[in-house]
Design brief:
With about 140 residues, the chain is of the alpha/beta class. It has five helices and five strands. A five-stranded mixed sheet has the order 1-4-5-3-2.
Length: about 140
């Protein structure tokens, strides 16, 4: 099972808000067939009600849906958005936004890989600058 599809990666994005970033992360998941439209609403609910759970540090945000939104997930998948300028997120700046749609615990491997990639702030900064879909795909696959 492919959790990250190249079609779910967007690079060099200019984002005006974390809500816009969340909608784009959801749209990438929807357009790649991984979720239904309603899951995007669930992601926005999470942002509004439990926003603290959507920023993980070192320039990385992980918008995802509420528990009851799982019924709108067709398959476990992630989307990745890269932004040179970044977007304000809970008082920080997110340059990498990883949209997560997880049915079970299948996404935990992806999250641990992500944690490894961004654990060191200098490594995280290098990822912020990658604006090649292929390079991001290689890195996260």
């Amino acid at each position: 099972m492919e959790i990250l599809k190249k079609s779910a990666i967007a690079v060099s994005q200019e984002l005006s808000s974390k809500e816009e970033a969340t909608k784009l992360a959801g749209r990438l998941l929807k357009d790649s067939g991984s979720i239904q439209e309603e899951y995007i609403d669930s992601m926005l609910d999470k942002l509004a009600n439990e926003g603290f759970a959507t920023y993980i540090g070192n320039g990385v945000a992980i918008p995802h849906g509420m528990e009851d939104g799982k019924k709108y997930i067709n398959e476990t998948a992630i989307s990745i958005i890269q932004s040179h300028t970044g977007v304000e997120w809970n008082g920080e700046t997110a340059h990498i936004i990883v949209g997560i749609a997880a049915k079970d615990d299948e996404h935990m491997d992806v999250l641990s890989k992500l944690a490894d990639l961004i654990e060191d702030p200098e490594d995280a900064k290098k990822i912020w600058g990658i604006d090649s879909k292929d390079q991001i795909y290689e890195l996260f696959s």
